[in-house]
Each structure stands twice: as C-alpha cells, then as structure tokens.
Amino acid sequence: MTDIRKIDREYVAGTYGRYDLAIEKGKGSRCFSYDGKEYIDFTSGIGVNSLGYCDDRWIDAVTEQLNRVQHTSNLYYTAPCAKLAEKLVKRTGMKKVFFGNSGAEANEAAIKTARKFGVTGKGENATKIITLENSFHGRTMAAITATGQEDYHRFFTPFLDGFSYCPVGDMETMKELADDEVCAIMIEPVQGEGGVKELPEEFVKEIAGLCNEKDILLIMDEVQTGAGRCGRFFCYEEYGVKPDIVSFAKGIGGGLPIGGVLLGEKCAHILTQGDHGSTYGGNPVAAAGALSVLERLDEDFLDEVREKGEIFRKELKKIRGVKAVSGMGLMIGVELERAAASEVVSEALEMGLLVLTAKDRIRLLPPLNIPYADIDEGLDILEKAIGSLDR
Fold first, then answer.
1. What number of CA atoms fall less than 13 Å from residue 320's CA on the CB side?
2. For the whole model, what pTM was predicted?
3. Are 279 and 75 in contact (CB under 8 A)?
4. Which helix or strand (DSSP H or E) is residue 82 part of?
5. Longest Cα pair distance anywhere in the chain, in angstroms?
6. Gap between the Cα atoms of 2 and 15, Å rounded
C-alpha cells in the first residue's frame, strides 16, 4: 500500500514522524497491515484504545447511538451526555463535569476554571499556575505554556504569562513559588511524555496540603493516567489525595475523541453560562462509547489491570539490557542499559510488535484487557528486539 504513504506525505502536514506501517484493521490487542502482517499492539493508540481494537460491546453501544442521533448542539440535552456525567460524578465524588474533545482541551478548561477561581475569590492578580519541570499538558497555547519542557517551547513565542515550573520533589521551591498570586498547582501523577516517571507519594501529599493551606486549587492532569490505565479509576487514588479539578481524555472514550474536567466542591460553580464551551463536547456518540468503557471498569477489572502490570514489570526486569522499569498499572516505562529506545521501537516493529518511546525510554500502553498470552508473546518479541541492539 505504497500509495497510502505517498498520498499522506503529499497532502498531510508533516507534523508526525510516522513509522513505515499502514494499519488496515484490528481486533483486541492485535492489528494488521494492508499486506496482511500481524502485530501485537502495546500502544493502544497512545493510550486511547483502552479496550483494544473494535471491542464488540463498545461497537454495539456506539452503533446504537449512531442510529439514533450522531450530534446535536449543547443548546439541547442528550441522554448519553447526562448519563456519562452522572456516572463520572458519582464514581469520583466530584460535583460537576465539563466535556470537550481532547486532553489539551481538558487542560485548557482546567486552566480557565482555575484563573476565574483566583480572580473572583482571591483578587485580580491571583492568576498564576505552578506546574512541574518535565511535565506535558498539551499543544494548545495555554497547555504548551503549562508544559515544563523547553523542547516544546521553541518557535511559538510569545507564550501566556502566569506559569512557573517547580522541579519534581523540591517542596522548598514549591512553597516559594506558591505566593498570593497563585490560583492552582497542576501536576501529572505519572509524567507520561516526560519518560513515564511517577511522582514521589510524599511530594504529592505535601502539594495537596499546601493547596489546602493556601486555598489553591489542586489540578490533576489524568489525560493519560486516568480511566483505569494505572490500575485505579483515576491515578490520584494511589496517592490518597483529593484534587479540586481532574482533567481526563484518551482511554475514557475507547477510541473516539472525548475529554473533559471533573470539578470539585471549590470550583463546581465557577464556570457559568458563556464562560466556556465546545461544539462537540458531550457528543452523544462519543459519550455512548465512554459509557461502555466505564461499565467495564469495575474493581475486578482494575484488579486485573494491576496484576497484568506486575507481570510486565516482573518479566521486563529479567530482560538483559533493561536498566529500570517505571510507571504504574499498564502505563510502563523501560529504561535501557545501552540500546537506544527509538531503535528498539523500529526493530520491534519489524518483528511484529508496536511500542512507543517517551524521551529516552520505551513506553508501553497496552489495552487494559490484553490477554495474558499476548503479554507473553509481546514481551518475547521485545526481549529479542532489545537483545539485537544491546551492544
């Protein structure tokens, strides 16, 4: 299918470094190229296909809604949007939810909510937001400014004012930054694009305590870590803290674009009519897909996610050439002794396995319901790929 690649290169903006693979179809944790080659997928579309490719129950839910109404504006009510909001709020104990289409949009909504909270409750200068070095929050202008990585800041100046960055684990600097003009602290419990690095538990708890002390909002960016990815419904549960805002996207939709923010008691009513909006936010088809995903994420399912994550970690640590393993649940980072992560990804692709990179590490985001046999087979391939380059 050279024509697909040629057409893509000619007409699609060159913002992605695509691998030499055109995917025709998939089922479960496996996909197939147009020439019939089969691949085990440890990427889930970068954490989106939480139930793998073309899950039957998910397809039924989406198709049923497509046969009713595919879209209407947010000037009217739809059942999937309302039911999804109810399930999310009751499951988390939060108070309200706003729906958008992506993680970046979700974080934009979180930033706007925080700034209005600061201006209306603390004063017109209380608009600053602290994020962490090595963080990633999206590619829109506010989200990329919030991102604490200089590589993402090239070429796109001027950036928004009002963001500062704290080193991970440096509570003294965090306290210095958290002056009277700060309205929120925004963190990822596991820094995905930053190398799949989980934050220290004590650091997160100290941040939560500081937020309570100074009436600062705690924003958890759970775009990649949420919806069961780390073995809990949301990863913040592992840290024993209660955020004021939680952004989500990716896996919650099972393959369709959906994102949003959950709002706690402090900011449930901050956004009022006209403050924010999204044409497709709460789209009934995307919401129907998300409802199907949520129905599956019960405690037994999440227990299995954690169990599978432990299998990955145990087996990865046995592989020659693996230096360290990070992450939580089925969000896994692999630091290598000698081989370059990018080269291992390419080698694994040739052998029939899809994996990702995150900085200098391999990143694994397999479907949450991946069969145990596919874990074993995929890890065998990964071991061979690492071994062939570990010199």
1. 6
2. 0.96
3. no
4. helix 79-92
5. 61
6. 20
